[in-house]
Amino acid sequence: MTLAYSGEAAYAMSQSSDIALVAQVVAFGNKRAFDSLVKKYQSSIRRFFLHQTLGDKELSDDLAQETFIKAYTHLTTFKNLSNFSTWLFRIAYNVFYDYIRNRKETSGLEDWEVDATYQIEQKRIGEEMDIYRGLSLLKETERTCVTLHYMEDLPIEKIAAIMEIPSGTVKSHISRGKEKLANFLKQNGYE
């Protein structure tokens, strides 16, 4: 007889597994336990950065690495008040906006967006390029909300916790971002 777990049961098992791994790292310095967390979340963290950086793979890898380093060095601050994944995405969100703030001090965000768009146009073709071009038109907060909701499949409440903004504001950012993306894609021949 095979038992099938409901989505909620699988989610609860995953969350308890994360907590057990965190406990092993904090209590016993078990680096393999942290490696398990990295393997579990590296794809989604890297994908988050890939969309935020408009397709810059090298920068995405660097920011993901910085996220996991910060998570490891601050693991004792994880209090299990939210899911581990929410806590980790919050770190990723902060790493990205620290990068943007530092970049603004030297060249301005508009220059970075133009450089990233140009780099993508040189490396990518077709639909992927159009998606990144469309994402580049969104405000930073809209792009973050759209990316987390549609590309990482995170619920509104989790995005609100990650960004530390009200759920209604997340909904507004998603709605505006979705509308801007739809208009851009429609203007470029997509139905």
Structure notes:
With 191 residues, the chain is mostly helical. It is 79% helix and 0% strand. The chain contains nine helices and no strands. It has helices spanning 7-28, 31-52, 57-73, 84-106, 109-123, 126-136, 140-151, 156-163, 167-187. Helix 2 (31-52) crosses helix 7 (140-151). The radius of gyration is 18 Å and the shape is elongated.
Order of SSEs: HHHHHHHHH
Class derived from helix and strand content: mainly alpha
> What is the first-to-last residue Cα distance?
47 Å
Largest sheet: none
Number of strands: 0
Unreliable residue runs: 1-5, 120-125
Radius of gyration based on Cα positions: 18 Å
- What's the overall geometry? elongated
Strand content: under 5%
The whole-number mean of residue pLDDT values reads: 84
Kindly state the percentage of residues in helix: over 70%
- Specify the number of helices: 9
Topology:
Layout: H1 7-28, H2 31-52, H3 57-73, H4 84-106, H5 109-123, H6 126-136, H7 140-151, H8 156-163, H9 167-187
Helix pairs in contact: 1-2, 2-3, 2-4, 2-7, 3-4, 4-8, 5-6, 6-9, 7-9, 8-9
